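Quick one: co-fold with tetrahydrodeoxyuridine.
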Amino acid sequence: MSLVDEAARVRENAYAPYSQFKVGAALTTATGAVFAGCNVENVAYPEGTCAEAGAIAAMVASGETAFTEIAVIADSPDPVPPCGGCRQKLAEFAAEGARITMATTDGATTEMAVADLLPGAFGKGHME
Ligand code: THU
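Sure, here it is.
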């Protein structure tokens, strides 16, 4: 199954009763393992979490800390881009050269480097 297909599969489990906007994300690592996540909203709106955050949490919980590819999918007019907070989360765990595929449920995709999602990112080097 492709990463986009895996993201579409987990999207079905999204808990999005407030926005009705279901998002799925799936990432893979150098070991070939695949981890998936969906958005999980909350009646206290700011407590909701994004699909990307769920996929990252699943990867870290299994003992890995770097992904090489991620796919994100939603029923969106254009391929769905990660929010600002997720761009920072992705920057933390992206392997060198990691790629992102953004997708719509209608089959449109856009691909780019994760590093290009957040120019000028705050990183570990800034804390030295
Ligand atoms: N959302 C994600 O899960 N990932 C994105 O890349 C964009 C936004 C979620 C958060 C919220 O549950 C819903 O989509 C509407 O913003």
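If it helps, The radius of gyration is 14 Å.
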